[in-house]
Amino acid sequence: GNGWYLVLKEGSEWKCECPDYYYRKVKCKHIFAVELSLNLRERVTSQNLGFESLCSQPEACKFCGSTNLIKRGCRKNKHGKVQRVSCKDCGKRFVVNEVGFQKMEYNPKVVTLALDLYFKGVSLRKITDHIKQFYGLKVHFSTILRWIQKYVQLMKGYVNGFTPQVSDVWHVDEMAVNVKGQYRWLWNLMDNDTRFILAMQMSKSREIQDARKVFAEAKDVAKVKPKIVVTDGLHAYEDAFRKEFFTLRSPRTKHLRLVSIRDKVNNNPIERFHGTVRERDKVMRALKNDKPTNQIIEGFRIYYNFLRPHMSLNGLTPAEIANINLELEGNKWLSLIKQSIKSRNATPENSNS
């Protein structure tokens, strides 16, 4: 209210033209205000305060295709800021959304955080509490489940297009899973050297046709037959193996059936994987029904093969050991979703439509 005062810094000493500093030779409120402003700017520049905007400048206008674009500030909503862009040629303005997250109410980091926590063993309701407690956002647990179903389906179509380079020894075993008070059988088939999960199937029984589906899926994914298939003593494996792998031509696949725990060869790799699955299953208490269960199983398979580093593989993922290097860095969930979107948009069907 008394006009303007010039605040200067000479070396390490601040000076001000106000009467308070001139007569008393002490730091006045104007110097303190300038120091606070500079410190605050430095803090905002150097630190990541909350969920920053992940939106970037688009390459072209979505209306006319022009590359003559400029940024026009941000649009604010209750979850943060979204970049707004203006086209100089057609004059239209539009909002920049992250690839794969168009018209999403929440920031992509919130979505991928929920996915990561879920497949690391945190329950849906605990994830909602975590997001609310640390980021002040209210997300219903059913919303998180829909995110899981949506993006698992998207990533599944992308990663299933890769062929892993696996070894000659495969391990297969089944485990009981509680689905709405009734037990189902989860069949898992893993490659010995890469720890790559080649097949995961859910069934109501342990019959020959159930085991055959697991073997058929593994052959379809690997595009080769192994030299040895290691199973336990379940009789269904014997008939299923003969129908899926038997041939008169050489080389033939050998079935190593472990009947006793005293056998020199063991099925430890797949048993260890069952422990990892059980960690996730224990948190859920019981699965609700068959359809969401199959989606969750597929999501866990993607997480295990492509995102989860393994101590036995020196911190690499099974996909990297199997020569599938997607170069996922930083937020791996976000990178994988982006690559899945680009792959889907690049298919001939989408190009012609």
Spell out the blueprint of helices and strands.
Blueprint: E1 7-10, E2 13-16, H1 19-24, H2 29-46, E3 69-77, E4 80-87, E5 93-95, H3 108-119, H4 124-135, H5 141-159, E6 169-179, E7 182-191, E8 197-203, H6 208-222, E9 228-231, H7 235-245, E10 254-257, H8 268-284, H9 290-307, H10 318-321, H11 332-345, H12 348-352
Parallel strand pairs: 6-9, 9-10
Antiparallel strand pairs: 1-2, 3-4, 4-5, 6-7, 7-8
Helix pairs in contact: 3-4, 4-5, 5-9, 5-11, 6-7
Radius of gyration: 29 Å
Helix tally equals 12
Backbone shape: elongated
Unreliable spans: 48-55
Structural class: alpha+beta
Describe the structure.
Strands 8-7-6-9-10 form a five-stranded mixed beta sheet, sandwiched between helices. It has a three-stranded antiparallel beta sheet with strand order 3-4-5, with no helix packed on it. A two-stranded antiparallel sheet has the order 1-2. Helix 4 (124-135) packs across helix 5 (141-159). Helix content is 43%, strand content 18%. Mean pLDDT is 84; it is low at 48-55. By secondary structure, the chain is an alpha+beta fold. Strand 4 and strand 5 form a beta hairpin. 24% of the residues are buried. It contains twelve helices and ten strands.
Key terms:
5-stranded mixed beta sheet, 3-stranded antiparallel beta sheet, elongated, 353 residues, alpha+beta, 12 helices
